[in-house]
Amino acid sequence: MNVLLDNLSLYGEGLLGTVELTVYASLLALVLGFLMAAFRVAPVGSLRALGTAWVTVLRNTPLTLLFFAVVLGLPRFGLVLPFQLFAILALGCYTSAFICEALRSGINTVPVGQGEAARSLGLTFPQTLGDIVLPQAFRSVIPPIGSTLIALAKNSAIAGAFSVTELLGVYKPLSEMGYSIIWSFVWIAVGYLIVTLSISAIFNVLEKRFGVAR
């Protein structure tokens, strides 16, 4: 316990950093994921191509490589941001591809006739998608979206290698101070467990409230 109690502020700072990364990157991933899912089912070919390219590239790119591309590549184009924002951008964009595919699978579960009925009533594609299709699709994809955001929380550990304050990076100063590396990692694991169980609890509540009964 002395590893934790003697360095409670250090662990707290790392845990707060991980929570901030997870929350902000999750919001970005959800927004981009919903947008790209809309593109993938849009009647406009160029939008479908953009959505497909987004998902194909990001799902098949290692997250570490994406971090390097964002942190080292964007400043070459004049975009200089704090490392934390770069990490949020990398995590959010990467996770959005998986959110998009989860949501698209939910859209495919909505009967085609509902979209046709909406169009026959004069609703536009955005109205049909936003008012009829997406609300039903979201109800069926709450569990996979929750699992994807849990994976995002664990993936945030990569940000520590890019000078971003997060939970895994706590082991470095603890190791330099001579604390047991095993117990340092035990408490780090407990911190990640708190974050992931919190996300799981939130999505369990959402599933009970909005999910499709099976």
Automatic annotation (TrEMBL):
Location relative to the cell: Cell membrane
Transmembrane stretches, start-end: 21-41, 53-72, 79-99, 181-206
Family classification: Belongs to the binding-protein-dependent transport system permease family. HisMQ subfamily.
Annotated coiled-coil segments of the chain: none
Protein's recorded name: Amino acid ABC transporter permease
Top-level taxon of the source organism: Bacteria
Organism per entry: Streptomyces sirii
Residue ranges of every copy of the ABC transmembrane type-1 domain listed in the record: 15-203
Record membrane topology: Multi-pass membrane protein
Main location: membrane
UniProt entry keywords in alphabetical sequence: Amino-acid transport, Cell membrane, Membrane, Transmembrane, Transmembrane helix, Transport
